[in-house]
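To the wet lab folks,

You asked to see what we're planning to order before we commit. Fair enough. Below is the target structure as tokens, and below that is the sequence we designed to fit it. If anything looks off to you, flag it before the synthesis order goes out.
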């Protein structure tokens, strides 16, 4: 039998970090290995060490100058800087200077060197680079020049509706745009998480991306210990609306939601007294002030702080409804938590009209889909929730948006087959040479 195809997956975010950016790369590595790929993951050492636990996956950790930043703050790892119930959301000062982002200097040169050394030792058949950070694609470009097929996975678009702050000078902005075109156009295939991001690249003539959405990993189902930890966190005498994770980025502003809850409290205090708005995640100071507004009473606001991921997943299954928030200012936004919510199987209050998250939620049977910047519409949806008018997603939605299907679609993209459909489903098409 021929050897399995050898894949180098380049991702800055990878376990043990708990950042949501690590979940897609980790799940893809695991499920690709399970369908027959020999997977090597190249990531940073700034989040700590540890080998992969999945058979068929090995992990290389390149040097990262971010580790120096952590040590200067008295920490051993970068992500421990953010293990808090509050955070500022301020970008690093170098983000105003280095194009496309600071990791182009702090990590990418070391990762490129490690990738080339690994390729010399045992050549790779395909390299898959995933961004952000955008500098990860420099590693794919370097291997592509050595004859390796290259697929660029774009989780957040580079210059379209960017999360990164705008560069202060026109020269930097033009350089950023040229780097995007230069890097992504060189890839053999581009994969996007959302259709709006893919449509933008097509419209600008930067490849013809396929869309493979984020998904739910069925191995992530919370266990009994997580269920026990979640017990008692929600008020049993109220209808609980739960949000898990951070708000804190462009496109997830809870301001209109708070206005709607205050409107409901003022116009229908008896109805509002049945609602618990629970937030399980860290808050920026101004977000905390929003949820501590006195005019929200008699709505019960429970700020639960940062919880272990398994506890959050178990809590999702205990809530009466789950809150999805995506502003139309970021049409490409597909909250990773949407796929967790679909797996939980409970009703979803989707404040996501005009976004890719809203489109996927509607496809999964979620209703109503309300604009996240419409306080009046949100107040109506809250009343509908309290009257028991929300239904859970389609029972098969979690499987449609699961990582086994997404990995099959990615395998087709990696091998030059046809990978189509935002559900991540596609037929596997391995060339005979594998």
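Sequence we intend to order:
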């Amino acid at each position: 039998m021929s050897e399995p195809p050898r894949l180098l997956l380049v991702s800055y975010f990878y376990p043990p970090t708990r950042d949501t950016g690590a979940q897609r790369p980790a799940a893809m590595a695991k499920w690709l290995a399970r369908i027959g790929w020999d997977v090597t993951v190249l990531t940073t050492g700034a989040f700590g060490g540890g080998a992969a636990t999945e058979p068929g996956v090995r992990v290389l950790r390149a040097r990262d100058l971010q580790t120096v930043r952590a040590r200067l703050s008295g920490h051993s790892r970068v992500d421990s800087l953010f293990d808090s119930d509050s955070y500022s959301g301020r970008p690093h000062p170098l983000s105003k200077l280095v194009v496309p982002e600071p990791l182009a200097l702090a990590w990418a040169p070391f990762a490129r060197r490690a990738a080339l050394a690994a390729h010399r030792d045992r050549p790779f058949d395909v390299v898959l680079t995933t961004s952000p950070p955008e500098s990860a694609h420099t590693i794919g470009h370097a291997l592509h020049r050595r004859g390796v097929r290259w697929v660029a996975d774009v989780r957040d678009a580079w210059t379209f509706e960017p999360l990164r702050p705008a560069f202060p000078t026109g020269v930097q902005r033009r350089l950023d745009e040229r780097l995007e075109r230069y890097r992504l156009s060189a890839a053999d295939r581009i994969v996007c998480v959302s259709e709006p991001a893919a449509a933008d690249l097509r419209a600008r003539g930067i490849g013809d991306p396929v869309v493979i959405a984020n998904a739910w990993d069925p191995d992530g189902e919370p266990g009994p210990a997580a269920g026990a930890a979640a017990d008692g966190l929600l008020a049993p005498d109220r209808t609980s609306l739960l949000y898990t994770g951070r708000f804190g980025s462009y496109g997830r502003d809870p301001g209109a939601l708070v206005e709607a809850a205050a409107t409901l409290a003022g116009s229908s205090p008896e109805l509002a007294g049945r609602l618990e708005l629970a937030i399980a995640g860290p808050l920026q100071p101004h977000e905390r002030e929003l949820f501590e507004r006195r005019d929200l009473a008699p709505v019960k606001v429970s700020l639960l702080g940062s919880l272990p991921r398994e506890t959050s997943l178990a809590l999702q299954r205990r809530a009466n409804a789950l809150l999805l928030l995506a502003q139309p200012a970021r049409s490409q936004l597909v909250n990773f938590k949407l796929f967790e919510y679909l797996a939980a199987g409970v009703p979803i209050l989707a404040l996501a009209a005009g976004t890719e998250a809203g489109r996927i939620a509607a496809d999964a049977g979620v209703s109503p889909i309300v604009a996240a910047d419409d306080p009046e519409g949100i107040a109506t949806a809250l009343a509908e929730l309290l009257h028991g008018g929300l239904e859970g997603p389609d029972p098969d939605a979690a499987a449609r948006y699961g990582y086994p299907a997404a990995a099959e679609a990615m395998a087709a993209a990696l091998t030059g087959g046809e990978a189509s459909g935002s559900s991540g489903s596609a037929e596997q098409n391995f060339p005979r040479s594998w």
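Structural context that might help your review: The chain has two domains: 6-215+402-415, 219-386. The domain at 219-386 is CATH 3.40.50.2000 (Rossmann fold).

Thanks,
Computational group
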